[in-house]
Amino acid sequence: MRSFIEKEKSTLMRPLSQGPEKAQLIRQTIFDALDEVSAALPDEQEIERSDETILIGASGVIDSLKLTMLIVSIEQKIEDAFGVTITLVDSNTLSPETSPFRQVRLLVQYIEDLLKAKIDG
Amino acid sequence: MDSPKSRGLIISDFNTEALSGLLKNSPQLPAIEAEVIPFGQVLPVLLERGHPCWQKEYDFILIWTQPDAVINAFQELTHFQPVTQETILSEVDEFAQAILNITGHTRQILIPTWTFPTFSRGLGILDVKSRRGIANTLMRMNLRLAETFEEVQNVHLLNAQKWIESTGKNSFNPKFWFLSKVPYDLQIFREAVDEIKASLQTIRGESKKMIIVDLDNTLWGGTVGEIGWESLILGGHDPIGEALVDFQKGLKALANSGIILGIASKNEESSALEAIQNHPEMVLRLTDFAGWRINWNDKAQNIVDLTQELNLGLQSVLFIDDNPAERARVKEALPEVLVPDWPEDKMLYKKTLMGLKCFDSPALTAEDGRRTQMYQQEHQRQAMRSRIGSLEDWLKTLNLRITVEKLSEANLQRVTQLLNKTNQMNLSTRRMTENELWEWTNSKHRKLWTFRVADKFGDSGLTGLASLEINGKIGTIVDFILSCRVFGRKIEEAMLHTVLEHARAQQLDEVRARYIQTAKNKPCLDYLNTSPLRYDPHQDLYIGKAEQSFALPDLLRAAMGNLKETET
Question: What is the nearest CA distance from B21 to chain A, expressed in angstroms?
Fold first, then answer.
């Protein structure tokens, strides 16, 4: 059951973060988290801020440590931005075949779906 | 800025790859390249002399551990098993001893203090009070480390608790731990990077030595030239007034720790000095400032003039001004001067000042607490010099006394500080730890002299250092260092005389000196070019024949009258 504050936050956030606006905010959050992760990488491995960036898999740009950093950072930033706690770690998200971390575009969609389920119940 | 890259090694019981990346990518100086030992091997690495890492040379080693990972008895305590604090502290001693055993393998060892997850409540209300409490025990463990390393000059404890407090509730992240064996949030690593870099700068002698402050709306509220000192906002029952008094107290505290204070202000000098002398709430008085430039000239020029008067390099200076335009002007004109962004809100002045990480000192010596006093004495000397025409006449009136001493355990700390902090009159600008310097002098082929300087205005303390390395019939001056505080009193002549006299007594053929240029040591070159040593461009050396006596001026002969007595 959601707390009173959680409900209030989600009510307040809803008008500001519908549809394309919400996707853009999520994308920005992911890019900010990618910048944080880049800062802890050697310079030549800087991660491109693009929908098309492939994060994990054969041509992915981040290893397991960086993936962890990215997950934790995104979860915190989403909580700050939307007032909703999400969990990005489960067997699907860590599987190379099904993980939304395969590409930034997939991750935006995945988080959007998670938020929709949380906020809209 | 000529700040060479530092090579480091990280030994930890958790994953520090991200820390290594952040150390490398942070733009803050010094640049760092840090190798990481695979995590979880702290004690095996520390105890195994044959480990490959000990074959390499590192500028620093960072040993960052979690207390429950390296102190088994503490881990038992966290599970509320019966274990005494004596047992835990005994394990702490063993851990500390393992670190002491590697102090000779590196220049510096940095150890973040032990912390414990903030989400753990331990014994709750008893956790701090009881000897079985986690918080109580952790404090004693950290204190034990501090006591053990107190006298070890190249082991430094970094206060990791500050990083935890600064980061807040997300400091410890179980998710990170379970996924990657990183116990902390990345922000903790960023805080650690700042602290590690600030510590290395301190150790290299790159800390700031002087703060130059503006007056109006910086030391006090209001413009003294317009409203008079009686109406300034300072102290009293006023939040801004109280905040400015507090800011002055912060500056005074830094002065007590050896930082020199100066003033650069656009004002009528008479009205500004009147305010400093007469306002009842002023914490800082004229005696707290080593010098000032209060006029309508360009502040950048005033800062240059003031530092020249005090024989300080611009890289030693931090400038504080409430006016963004003045800050921008100084930043642009004098890039060596550190000009921090300054808050508009005066109630944040002290917080901003005390948060600056550029004033640390790796060791505190008796000279530090008397530094402003020494500069004021220098001010008096210069004032007298301007009244007395010739340099010789002025020096005669000073009643100069120079005492030559060997390196000893008693002066080792101060000598190392002088070696590592002096930039201008410095022949080779080599930087060494106390251990390295002690080891270096521990050879019959090497000789090191220290010079204490005093005159009728006061004692400047141990301010000079010269060393000679003898190879056959050739003596090479390795260090020739003089604090800027005693420039212009011919002390350098007394130092060179001491070296050459020793060379003559040892029947050497010649004495050589190789000047190693840095961005800051031109004063040393200027002296060498006027010294009895002759420059040989083919060998790029300054050379003096040892049999030639270097006649010492009479007044220096008198000043060094006690040479033989103290050198034994």
Answer: 4
ipTM above 0.85, yes or no: no
Taking 3-state DSSP, the helix, strand and coil percentages for chain A, each rounded to the nearest 5, stand at 65, 0, 35
Summarised one tens digit per residue, pLDDT across range A73-107 is 899 899 888 888 888 887 677 777 788 888 999 99
CB pairs under 8 A between A and B: 48
Who among A39, A40, A68 is closest to B176 (CB)? A68
Q: What residue ranges of chain B are covered by domains with CATH 3.40.630.30?
A: 384-567
In sequence order, the 6+-apart residues with CB closer than 8 A to the CB of B17 are A40, A65, B36
Q: Which CATH architecture has domain A4-119?
A: Orthogonal Bundle (1.10)
Partner-chain contact B170 A76, CB within 8 Å:
yes
Contact B18 A69 (CB under 8 A): yes
DSSP 8-state class, residue B301: H
Render pLDDT for B165-220 as a digit per residue (tens, 0 to 9): 999 888 998 888 888 899 998 899 999 999 999 999 888 878 899 999 999 999 99
Interface test with B, best of A69, A85, A90 (most B CBs within 10 A): A69
- Domain range summary for chain A, segments of one domain joined by +: 4-119
A40 vs B185: CB contact, 8 Å cut-off?
Answer: no
Q: How far apart are CA A78 and CA A115, in angstroms?
A: 9
**The domain B210-355 is classified under which CATH number: 3.40.640.10, 3.40.120.10, 3.40.50.2300, 3.40.50.1000?**
3.40.50.1000
Q: What is the distance between the alpha carbons of residues B33 and B82, in angstroms, rounded to a whole number?
A: 43
Query: What does CATH list as the number for B384-567?
Result: 3.40.630.30
Any alpha helices (H) in B279-411, and if so which ranges? 299-309, 324-333, 349-355, 366-369, 371-387, 391-398
Chain region(s) in chain B for CATH 3.40.50.1000: 210-355
3-state class (DSSP) for residue B530:
helix
Yes or no: say if B110 and B192 are a contact pair by the CB < 8 Å rule. Answer: no
- Using CA coordinates, name the residue in chain A closest to B25: A39
Measure in Å the smallest separation between the Cα of B191 and chain A Cα atoms. 13
